[in-house]
Amino acid sequence: MLTLHTKLAADDGRAAVAQLVLPYDQREKCRLRAVLSNGEDVAVFTVRGTVLRDGERMTGPEGQVVQIVAAREPTYLVRCLDAHTLLRCAFHLGNRHTQAQVGDGFLRIRKDVVLKEMLEGLQATVTEESAPFEPEAGAYGGGHGHHDGHGQHLLAPVPLRQKIHRPGDTPGSA
């Protein structure tokens, strides 16, 4: 069985020997057993919180490269007549902690009849489709961020620790 545990840089240059086609809920697991496009069994081990994104490539101790492919799955495509209505839909989805893919003029969510009715009530056009699902990583789930000077990629600047003043503190003590 092939083992995968390391994401490769986009410019690595090595060709993939197979594809690993997975729906989103499988691409966010840190331990997974699956079957590659060539029929070979694979074990995937990632750090908790890692999401495998469409097009990424992975390798393991064997040195073989596998490309990750987002599988088509049941989703709803959400469109609105104007940006304000689309923003309202995104707000209400976020308020329900619903994962959503944000695109140019659309949202995509997993198929959920209750959410569909809510969105239609907000005047959105909701179309059932089968599509790869790539939701936003979320505020704490990776993505683009700031460097903290120690190789970490922070999503937002972390405020400096503030001194807490207690009644017994003397001026100038730190």
UniProtKB/TrEMBL annotation:
Chief place of localization: cytoplasm
Record domain UreE urease accessory N-terminal: where: 1-66
Gene Ontology CC: cytoplasm
The keyword Lyase appears for this protein: no
Chain intervals for the UniProt region annotation (Disordered): 128-153
GO MF annotation: an example: unfolded protein binding
Taxonomy, superkingdom: Bacteria
Pfam families per the UniProt record, alphabetical: UreE_C, UreE_N
Keywords linked to the UniProt accession: Chaperone, Cytoplasm, Nickel
Cellular localization per UniProt: Cytoplasm
InterPro entries associated with the record: UreE, UreE_C_dom, UreE_N, UreE_N_sf
GO biological process: protein folding; protein-containing complex assembly; urea metabolic process
Functional summary from the UniProt entry: Involved in urease metallocenter assembly. Binds nickel. Probably functions as a nickel donor during metallocenter assembly.
Family: Belongs to the UreE family.
Protein name per its UniProtKB record: Urease accessory protein UreE
Source organism per UniProt: Janthinobacterium violaceinigrum
